[in-house]
Amino acid sequence: xxxxxxxxxxxxxxxxxxxxxxxxxxxxxxxxxxxxxxxxxxxxxxxxxxxxxxxxxxxxxxxxxxxxxxxxxxxxxxxxxxxxxxxxxxxxxxxxxxxxxxxxxxxxxxxxxxxxxxxxxxxxxxxxxxxxxxxxxxxxxxxxxxxxxxxxxxxxxxxxxxxxxxxxxxxxxxxxxxxxxxxxxxxxxxxxxxxxxxxxxxxxxxxxxxxxxxxxxxxxxxxxxxxxxxxxxxxxxxxxxxxxxxxxxxxxxxxxxxxxxxxxxxxxxxxxxxxxxxxxxxxxxxxxxxxxxxxxxxxxxxxxxxxxxxxxxxxxxxxxxxxxxxxxxxxxxxxxxxxxxxxxxxxxxxxxxxxxxxxxxxxxxxxxxxxxxxxxxxxxxxxxxxxxxxxxxxxxxxxxxxxxxxxxxxxxxxxxxxxxxxxxxxxxxxxxxxxxxxxxxxxxxxxxxxxxxxxxxxx
Length: 459
What we know:
Elements: E1 21-25, H1 36-50, E2 54-59, H2 69-76, H3 87-96, E3 101-105, E4 135-139, H4 142-153, E5 157-161, E6 169-172, E7 178-180, E8 184-188, H5 193-196, H6 205-218, E9 221-224, H7 227-237, E10 244-246, H8 260-271, E11 279-282, H9 291-301, E12 307-310, H10 317-320, E13 337-341, H11 345-354, E14 357-360, H12 369-376, E15 381-384, H13 389-393, E16 398-400, H14 405-417, H15 419-433, H16 438-451
Parallel strand pairs: 1-2, 1-6, 2-4, 3-5, 5-7, 6-8, 8-9, 9-10, 11-12, 11-14, 12-13, 14-15, 15-16
Antiparallel strand pairs: 3-4
Helix pairs in contact: 1-16, 3-4, 9-14, 12-15
């Protein structure tokens, strides 16, 4: 019996054989519950592929090279595998791998079936986490090793492509302390939140500051997602203006094509909610997102439309949700405020589409994707008047001081009682969100590639 040929787990659109190769790190894709940066990574990958480049993904899964190819493939996609190496091993590798870490191709023997994907991303990692790509590479535990090296030595981790040539360019989707040799290294710094609001993030600030300074000094280019973040990077990190480009964050089209009547029926059947009959907050539950002030303002507004909170709990979430005393801390005493936790992406889209308004009074944002996605769907938005939010929403939303609970309450009263205001914001939202369409994002991204001398295959 003839052996079946190996199958790629990530089929991609056909790129010309001589098209420039561009990689992206797949670190954010390994988070099954990822939000902003995971969404950004998927959009970046789509833009690169759509431009006709040969696209590769570089992961940092713990994957010893001594394993045979079949076991490496299985271990790479093993959701139950250990996600990182212990600290003592990482410190030991600082000595044994002084020349840096090696990136190798992921063997694709055909053992793993790429077509049988779960409907949602798996508990930790599976083929469902991937995006279409022409190449899969892996550098053993590269992120954890890079972070330890930056803290201990203050140096970026060097990566070398072994068994193949490096790409023309690699996009790092976050401020990762590593550099691929032989390639142009482009880093996305979404914002300087760990430095601007150090109390708001659990990140090790020494690591973050050292990494930001190293990227500022060595990056071939820096990409960011708003003019507010670009200004911070230039002024606070001392990066010359010509080395920082704002591409904004793309807002992908809605995934669901369910007719409106069916969508409303599913909304009522699943969550007991009616079209335009509730307010919605979507993001992580943490102090920076300002949930406690939003809850206080909502109670002060005396609105009878429920307030639905969607997102995972993070630091100090108990204090943020202190009024949710019923149903194991997921509902207020009268049931008007409900915390749904993390829910599938398609349900987030459904809730956003039918909400009376998206309430997003965050204290600081690099872009503010929930507000932009709500505008795209024609849902009115209430958000902050600071950081990047005014430039993202323009005049298509209500903006208030996020630290002013009274102003938030008055804005909610206006949304509750003024149907004409809601209709006006609904009409203004989609044209504003179109500024951040995938096609416009691809154009902005291509200006970065051209600036760095990477040819556009479609030009």
